[in-house]
Design a protein that fits this description.
There is one protein chain. With 148 residues, the chain is an all-alpha fold. The chain has a domain of 69 residues. It has six helices and two strands. A two-stranded antiparallel sheet has the order 1-2. Strand 1 and strand 2 form a beta hairpin. The longest helix is centred in the middle third of the chain and has 14 residues. The radius of gyration is 17 Å and the shape is globular. The N and C termini lie close together (8 Å).
Length: 148
């Protein structure tokens, strides 16, 4: 998946996750269009995405739904990557810009030893990968190096 803009980057997406993303898009989307958009093709605003995340947390029965914010999800994802040993300097290529001071603070989550390249860590949460694989009817184990 390609993210445009000043801080553009390519994000590897496994086939089951790509199928889930495509299920949310129009049948014949413009390749440059937003993943989440209204029926008229207009992108969903950041505030609306945050509200949808809140509704999802409520519907899932989480104990403190207001704490499930886009920022909290981003922090959790960055921490997940760092705990696997990813090089801190490589993180912005996957997660977008991170202020240097904040990037340095994530160092406390790094395991001892040499840091790993982005392509050496699992970029998709295993539970999400499993969920999308099962919901797509694909019960096979994914190839860890395979991306869409």
């Amino acid at each position: 998946m390609n993210v445009g803009g000043d801080k553009g980057r390519s994000i590897p997406v496994t086939p089951p996750l790509m199928a889930a993303i495509q299920a949310c898009r129009p049948a014949d989307p413009n390749p440059g269009s937003a993943v989440w958009q209204h029926a008229d093709g207009e992108p969903v605003a950041a505030d609306d995405l945050a509200a949808m995340l809140l509704f999802t947390a409520h519907d899932a029965g989480l104990t403190r739904p207001p704490e499930i914010t886009p920022e909290a999800v981003r922090h959790t994802y960055i921490s997940y990557l760092v705990r696997q040993g990813v090089r801190l300097n490589d993180l912005p290529a996957l997660v977008g810009p991170v202020r240097p001071g904040l990037l340095a603070a994530y160092g406390v989550y790094s395991p001892p030893g040499s840091a790993m390249q982005l392509d050496s860590v699992e970029s998709v949460y295993p539970a999400l990968e499993r969920y999308y694989r099962e919901s797509s009817g694909d019960a096979t184990e994914p190839d860890p190096g395979q991306t869409a």
